[in-house]
Amino acid sequence: MFLDELTPFVKELTAHPAAFLGGLASGLLRLNLSDDPVKSWLSTQGATPSSGGGVGSAHSRNGDGPQSIAID
């Protein structure tokens, strides 16, 4: 049962180990792909970060704090 859940993890790791470990490290370190050091390194490598970004993406935020709404 537990091995069935790890199968996709192992398949991705064996298929593309460098990309998988790089994504894992950036996720663990909570690196934002739109920030300058990572963005400039990715552009020199020939990759373009997706505009969808993660949770901290500037495109996904509608404001900096709580917003009030009016319910009629």
Provide a descriptive summary of the structure in words:
This protein is mostly helical and 72 residues long. It has a domain at 8-43. Helices cover 50% and strands 0% of the residues. It starts with a helix and ends in a 27-residue tail after the last helix. 0% of the residues are buried.
Summarize model confidence as the mean pLDDT: 75
- Supply the helix-strand structural class: mainly alpha
Counted beta strands: 0
The major sheet is characterized as: none
Query: What is the distance, rounded to the nearest whole angstrom, between the alpha carbons of the first and last residues?
Result: 50 Å
What percent of the residues sit in helical stretches (DSSP H or I)?
40-55%
Q: Rg from C-alpha positions? A: 17 Å
Give helix and strand order, one letter per element, not per position: HHH
Q: Uncertain runs with pLDDT below 50, 5 residues or more?
A: 52-59
Strand content: under 5%
- Put simply, the count of helices is 3
Shape: flat
